[in-house]
Design goal:
Layout lengths: L1 H10 L4 H27 L3 H25 L1
Helix pairs in contact: 2-3
Length: 71
């Protein structure tokens, strides 16, 4: 029974490689959000500006979701 508990506990740990992937995903989501925000600020077309803001918010939501899973 103790061996089974150890196997279950190990599944909750991330390997260094997995942690590196998640770190990369966080960086990509944050960068995409910043690029959308910067582009929206420079945009003159209200529809495109709104779309860029919505897309940036989606990237921020993805970023926060990844952080939540790490806690």
């Amino acid at each position: 029974m103790n061996n089974q508990q150890n196997m279950t506990a190990d599944r909750n740990l991330l390997s260094e490689k997995e942690f590196g992937y998640i770190k990369d995903f966080l960086s990509w989501e944050l960068l995409a959000m910043k690029k959308c925000k910067d582009s929206a600020e420079q945009c003159q077309d209200p529809q495109i500006k709104q779309l860029l803001e919505q897309t940036g918010q989606q990237h921020l939501d993805h970023y926060n979701s990844l952080l939540k899973h790490l806690q």
